[in-house]
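Q: Ribose-5-phosphate isomerase A, please. Structure only.
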Amino acid sequence: MIDSKQQEKREVALKAAELVKDGNIVGLGSGSTMDFVIVELGRRIKDGLQFTGVASSLKTERLADSYGISMQELGMTSGIDISIDGANEFTEQLHLIKGGGGSLFREKIVASLSNNTIIVTDSTKKVNQLGQFGVPVEVVPSAYEFVKKQLIKLGGNPIIRKSLAENFITDNGNFVFDVDFGIIGNPACLAQQLDGIVGILEHGLFVSLTTKILMANGNEVVTFT
Ligand code: 5RP
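A: Structure for Ribose-5-phosphate isomerase A:
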């Protein structure tokens, strides 16, 4: 028996999975909503759907594999027909904060390679302006103090992400700062400033990378384009 929140995730996942067509190269994002997408794509494979998946995290890769999805390496991928991924926050302008699960770097590569990026969310993630969810910033360990200082200079409050008592480690062997910048008036400007800091591998501001957002809202799925 799944609760109503899980049911919403499942509904929006089913809608997104319908968009995958035979022969597609499909970017597979990360997170609990994506897990439902992967399960549904696995079910459609049994009905004869043929496609190749590209994973945005090791966890997604393992799950996709367990559902019989044929996978190709992200690093060997030069184009993706459609990608599906979750988000932690979004606006109607299709700006996102991602990286709550720590997979932001590979997720951004997947989105950047995609002709069509579909985001699966629910109404709790919709905001007028980004910034209630701290911006995840993946930092190379040797740049820890330097990056922390730069983030503070930009007006942020960086908190190192922990997993149990240890620093959280990404699939790429790096740390993550969750940075409170307050309300983000201009996501494109902040993204550009973060892009310019040496030692940041990637950040979770996704600006102009999304084609469509599918939002579960009770029994319906609302689309933002
Ligand atoms: C992982 C992500 C996820 O897509 C994001 O955290 C949303 O996950 P969920 O569907 O579990 O709410 O960005 O890095």
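A: Brief note, in case it's useful. The pocket of ribulose-5-phosphate is lined by residues 29-33, 85-88, 98-104, 107 (CB under 6 Å).
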